[in-house]
Mitotic-spindle organizing protein 1 (Anopheles minimus), 81 residues
Amino acid sequence: MPEPSSNDHDNTNLYMRLQQSQLVRANIQNISQFLNTGLSLEALDICVKLLEAGVHPQSLSEAVIQIRNEMATFNNGQSGE
């Protein structure tokens, strides 16, 4: 009977991490929708990556709010032309 190679073990670990990652991503998306954040899937992914990189959560939320406010001001200025 052949012994499992370390490559098979690595592939299994990679598969499990991918499945867990997809589950976590889906849960984050569900929470975002429940809280009505209005963040796109891409924006959520970026926020999660920033948090994983060590960005302070409150600082990130303040930056998102500031960007939204500036975009609203910009869009209001565009519609007034």
In short: The chain has three helices and no strands.
